[in-house]
Amino acid sequence: MEAEVREPGDALAAPAGWRPLATHPVGAIIAHYAERSFVAGDPTGQGIRVRYAWRAMSPDEACVVTAAEPAALAARAWFGARAEGPPGHAHGGSMAAVLDEAMGLAVWLAHRAAVAAHLETDFRRPIPLGTTVTAETTVGPAEGTGKARATARLVGDDGTVFAEGSALFVLLGPRHTFAGGGA
Ligand SMILES: CCCCCCCCCC(=O)SCCNC(=O)CCNC(=O)[C@H](O)C(C)(C)COP(=O)(O)OP(=O)(O)OC[C@H]1O[C@@H](n2cnc3c(N)ncnc32)[C@H](O)[C@@H]1OP(=O)(O)O
């Protein structure tokens, strides 16, 4: 039997100053993807609920990115009973999945379509089920022939850092098949 887990109520609302993903031109495309994502695609379920948001990048951030309308991405994420790992707490895979997807979408918004090539996760504190956290992301400049690094962390409303991720994304080009390969 699943544990009783506190519902998020309105805690998934975008942080102050952030806008719903669907209101950004590229964000609207990836918001459509997010509707069927196993990470964010069940916004009322008992697994993970994720809501993405964007804001315009500051001039400092914008100078290192390549998209036509570069944007920064954050997410609010809630972990329910179906995301359980250790008793009463979130599964590490669910935390890593949120970090991976948030970083991936952040790279799409800052550069272009990309896939993760390498992903690292540090689990700092267990997340009690029923907790809503913010996934904060950063994206670096395009490097070499087409790759970019990103970081993300899951931060509680009291400032607790529950997990940190870093990843290398390969920016997709004509030699890649992902765009038309059933994605
Ligand atoms: C509509 C919105 C959808 C949003 C979706 C977001 C989802 C969230 C993100 C994901 O989870 S993506 C899914 C998980 N990832 C994959 O399935 C990718 C599987 N791997 C591959 O398909 C290929 O390995 C990959 C496309 C990533 C790279 O193959 P390539 O043949 O294009 O790259 P190549 O091997 O030539 O390497 C390109 C550069 O990346 C570097 N690189 C590649 N893999 C690396 C690696 N694992 N570690 C470190 N560096 C790596 C490589 O050294 C090189 O550096 P340089 O440009 O400096 O020479």
Automatic annotation (TrEMBL):
EC category: hydrolase
Catalyses which reaction(s): (5Z,8Z,11Z,14Z)-eicosatetraenoyl-CoA + H2O = (5Z,8Z,11Z,14Z)-eicosatetraenoate + CoA + H(+); decanoyl-CoA + H2O = decanoate + CoA + H(+); tetradecanoyl-CoA + H2O = tetradecanoate + CoA + H(+); (9Z)-octadecenoyl-CoA + H2O = (9Z)-octadecenoate + CoA + H(+)
SUPFAM superfamilies: Thioesterase/thiol ester dehydrase-isomerase
Topological relation to the membrane, as annotated: Peripheral membrane protein
Keywords linked to the UniProt accession: Apoptosis, Cell membrane, Cell projection, Cytoplasm, Fatty acid metabolism, Hydrolase, Lipid metabolism, Membrane, Transit peptide
TM helices/strands, residue ranges: none
InterPro entries: HotDog_dom_sf, THEM4/THEM5_acyl-CoA_thioest, Thioestr_dom
Annotated localization: Cell projection, Ruffle membrane; Cytoplasm; Membrane
This enzyme's EC code(s): 3.1.2.2
GO annotation, cellular component aspect: cytoplasm; membrane
Single Gene Ontology MF annotation: thiolester hydrolase activity
Domain Thioesterase: residue ranges: 88-139
Key word Metal-binding present: no
GO biological process: fatty acid metabolic process
Main location: membrane
Pfam families registered for this protein in UniProt: 4HBT
Record CDD domains: PaaI_thioesterase
Family: Belongs to the THEM4/THEM5 thioesterase family.
Protein name according to UniProt: Acyl-coenzyme A thioesterase THEM4
Lineage: Bacteria, Pseudomonadati, Gemmatimonadota, Gemmatimonadia, Gemmatimonadales
